[in-house]
Fold this sequence. Notes:
A: alpha/beta; six-stranded mixed beta sheet; B: flat
Amino acid sequence: MAKIILKGVEKRFGDNTVCDGIDLAVEEGQMVCLIGASGAGKSTLLRCINLLETIEDGEILLDGEDISLPGLNPQPVRRRIGMVFQSYNLFPHMTAAENVMLAPRRVYKKSRAALRPEITELFKRFGLADRMDHYPDQLSGGQQQRVAIVRALAMKPEVMLFDEITSALDPQLVGEVLDVLRLLKDSGMTMVLATHEMGFAREAADKVCFLKDGKVIEEGAPSALFDTPKHPDTQAFLARALK
Amino acid sequence: MTKTNAAGKTRRQIYEDRLRRRSMLIAGGSTLAVFLAVVILVPMAPGWDRVKASFFNWEVFAKTFPKLLEAFKLDVAIFLWSAPAIVILGLLVALARDTRNPALFPLRILGAAYTDIFRGVPVVLTVYLIGFGIPGLGLPRPWNSPYIWGSLALILTYSAYVAEIFRSGIESVHKSQRSAAQSLGLSDADSMRYVILPQAIRRVIPAQMNMFIALQKDVALLSFIGPVEIFRQAGVFKSLLANFTPYVGAAVIFLAVTIPATRYADYLMAKQNRERS
Lengths: 243, 277
């Protein structure tokens, strides 16, 4: 069974329907990229999977278990699903290491001393060994975003969601963050990305979904979707995006 | 290649030096003119000699100042035990007003009513009502002390303002910070305590400092219900010596505390604005 299954997910903000009956399956260890214009519903969909937004209708299953059940306590679910945001959202009053240790300390009741070796390893793996005790405003955008990824990974999630995590970066910093994503994929992490990096999606994704007006218009293997898009909307979007 | 003069300055630098000299000259000249006008014109007023004798009597000033300073210790003491209570109560009220838990809904209403009432009544009235009203219940010593109830009046009033400032700080923290905390699986209470509050409190420190400077001044209002603090002491001297100079002495003592504190708060505020832009 797929790791994550979305069935007819609907999300409205007032009269504005942002997700309009979305079906999606993400297999264990897969990287799925959501593409589409701004406002297509990619970010909102990720926020719904992480239960940061409640859905009006439909179901979200994690390992077959309905996590969109109204009244369900979202905290245990969020621990299993890590999320990284476009604007990094590091906590500015804490060092990188403190950012990473906060949730394991509070949620898993681990001490700083017990966590330190473990997270030092993570920082090393993502090329941040000498940045652990820096504050976010002392780090470049790329470094901040990598710290944000480490922070999510420290909770040992089963799934990672990435919401346009390279969109706020200077072009020369995008590469270092995408390298981290490749590293994660190779380690077998299940990942869902909302992204504008078409080259990366084509090269690294297992599946690409094109969203428009809150609907999945077309999905498939990257080679099929990018080279021979079937739907005219997909063709029009790709013609503009790949120009 | 820009032409430079003998001192190695560019045209632009020479021009800006000239502008700077000119504006310093004008500022100095106008300050001097205003100062001279005050020094010459005020003593020409018909009542100046009388005012000088009753407000600026050096002998009275020198004689009463040490006692005033002594009495000011009481103002500082009242400030010191009220301020921590205000911080704690203010924070609790701010949190109560922001709570989303339906079981705590009564707290939200109470918090709103509390801040409305105590911000809406003049401080001196609250001091009177609580300072005279509660001991009027016939409480035994020491529970009829005006120190307790006067301080409580100040605590209740200032906590209302301080709570609103904390609340504005909490609301100024971008909601993406809350999202990030929640996405890590932190509870709402932990998100508030470790992520939102530390940032919120840091942001409102200059504003809170201004509140506490105002509190130090308002301690003088307790003189109306009994405690012989500096304002009351100055009043006693005024009656004894038939001279208003002790009030000027009291003002000098207040200023010695409030001006440095105000300057420091302004400095913090300016520093924060620089950091955020």
